[in-house]
């Protein structure tokens, strides 16, 4: 088959089997540079692309310990991370030091030019810095999120989506969980200081605190304007506050950003017409 015939066939297949919205489209940015700051975390940091444009990226599928807790949201997240790793009794300063270790690890891993794959899905976070979700590949061809989990400096947690090389959302989740289990078994990184006797109690308390937080969401307005949730701007927690939206659906919505109109939500895998009709009164695109 000639190259021309292959191109024609590809066009026909795209027409017959269209991709599922923006979630399948990545922009590949090569020769990016890491920019050191005093606020970066291991999983969230500024980069400069080959054209000199700066942006902040947030890694998919991993969560490093916070490096500061001045804001209420940061302090709450730090507490949750301490409980997850079973290091709560060691104190806030110890946990923050582990977060800074992840920051140092990331800076070292990205010392040479690296590649960023992103759909520019909004990752929220600090209002001063617009963040986008991304996969980051080091100069050695390794996935940064994978390296962080293997080193015991991150947990398999956060927003998941299919990868640029075709690994599915659910398969990525399972792979990251397995890598975390290996790091836990080796006792590396943060896991070296885990109190195994108290870990079940800590995790139980974490689940209770998250449940209490979910219950309180009903009294917190999601937006300042219409009261509806903006699909392009909402955090994971805000999306999960919509009745009928769980963590998996919320992460799929974030991965499919940006949306041009709420009807685009129908293109997200797992959201059928019935689900869309239930959600549509609570959502908008601004």
Mean pLDDT: 83
| CATH class value of the largest domain | Mainly Beta
List the secondary-structure elements in sequence, H or E.
HEEEEHHEEHEHHEHHHE
Which structural class is indicated by helix and strand composition?
alpha+beta
**Major beta-sheet overview:** 5 strands, mixed, barrel
The count of domains is 2
Low-confidence stretches: 3-23, 217-225
Number of strands: 9
Give the CA-CA distance, first to last residue: 46 Å
What is the C-alpha radius of gyration, as a whole number of Å?
20 Å
Q: What best-fitting shape do the alpha-carbon axes yield?
A: globular
Measured by DSSP, the beta-strand proportion falls in 15-25%
């Amino acid at each position: 088959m000639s190259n021309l015939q292959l191109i024609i066939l590809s066009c026909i297949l795209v027409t017959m089997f269209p991709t599922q919205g923006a979630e399948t489209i990545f922009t590949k940015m090569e020769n990016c540079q890491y920019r050191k700051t005093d606020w970066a975390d291991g999983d969230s940091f500024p980069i400069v692309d080959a054209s000199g444009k700066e942006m902040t990226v947030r890694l998919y599928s991993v969560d490093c310990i916070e490096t500061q807790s001045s804001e209420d949201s940061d302090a709450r997240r730090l507490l949750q991370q301490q409980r997850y790793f079973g290091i709560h009794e060691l104190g806030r300063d110890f946990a923050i030091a582990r977060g800074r270790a992840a920051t140092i690890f990331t800076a070292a891993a990205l010392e040479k030019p690296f590649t960023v794959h992103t759909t520019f899905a909004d990752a929220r976070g600090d209002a001063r810095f617009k963040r986008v979700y991304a996969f980051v590949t080091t100069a050695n061809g390794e996935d940064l999120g994978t390296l962080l989990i293997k080193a015991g400096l991150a947990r398999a947690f956060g927003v998941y989506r299919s990868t640029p090389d075709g690994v599915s959302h659910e398969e990525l989740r399972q792979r990251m969980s397995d890598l975390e289990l290996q790091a836990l078994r080796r006792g590396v990184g943060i896991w070296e200081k885990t109190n195994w006797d108290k870990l079940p109690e800590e995790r139980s308390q974490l689940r209770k605190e998250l449940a209490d937080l979910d219950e309180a969401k009903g009294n917190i307005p999601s937006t300042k304007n219409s009261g509806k949730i903006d699909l392009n701007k909402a955090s994971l927690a805000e999306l999960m506050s919509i009745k009928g939206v769980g963590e998996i659906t919320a992460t799929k919505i974030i991965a499919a950003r940006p949306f041009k109109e709420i009807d685009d939500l129908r293109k997200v895998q797992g959201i059928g017409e019935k689900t869309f009709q239930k959600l549509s009164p609570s959502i908008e695109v601004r």
